[in-house]
Amino acid sequence: MSNGTESAVRLLILLAIGTMAGAAAFTHVHDLSVAHGQPDWIGWANAVAVELMAIYLGLEIRARRRAGRPVGLVGSLLVAFALLSLAAQVAEAEPSVWGWIVAAVPSLAFLALVKVVLSNAPATPPVDEPDQPNAYQYEEPADVEPVRPAEPMPSSAPAVVPPRAVVSSNRPHVVGIIR
């Protein structure tokens, strides 16, 4: 199977699972809202808010990672909205272990898809800032004259050893300061 074909198949699977999981999740959040006194249109508004917020937050995490920005708060919100969706699905289930497991499948499938998609984010190397030296570049050191020892300090002051420049014998281009 070619890379293009494989990518197309992966996308179709992703869309199919996402569509079905989304439809089930929307329906469960809607039905739970209506069952607890919300008008029908508010049930749909709740479903849209909960489910699309989770999708948006997943995309926001990806964008923040690419930009090197922190994702802690956004990640916490994603977990909160995913748990809200999961809770709505489980609350609508038949009150049995299998009923809860089967009802949780759409949310769990969505979480798995988000995790897989977000973990496939391309790694972007950090951009070198123009004022930052490149780690692989160095300038040849100028001839370094030895530092003369300082005059002796009076006995009441602590002794200070002046720095002196040393050129490494193993790597003549490295200059260090020894105290």
Description:
- The protein is elongated and about 90 Å long.
- It contains four helices and two strands, in the order ααααββ.
- Helix content is 58%, strand content 4%.
- The chain has 179 residues and is mainly alpha-helical.
- The mean pLDDT is 77.
- α2 packs antiparallel against α3.
- β1 and β2 form a beta hairpin.
- The chain has a two-stranded antiparallel sheet.
In short:
With 179 residues, the protein is mainly alpha-helical. The protein has 4 helices and 2 strands; from the N terminus they run ααααββ.
- Mean pLDDT over the residues: 77
Percentage of residues in DSSP E strands = under 5%
Order of helices and strands: HHHHEE
Oligomeric composition of the shown chains? single chain
CA-to-CA gap between the ends?
A: 64 Å
Low-confidence stretches: none
> Count of DSSP E strands?
2
The largest sheet is: 2 strands, antiparallel
Annotation keywords:
4 helices; two-stranded antiparallel ribbon; single chain; elongated; 179 residues
Topology:
Elements: H1 3-35, H2 40-67, H3 72-91, H4 97-119, E1 164-167, E2 175-178
Antiparallel strand pairs: 1-2
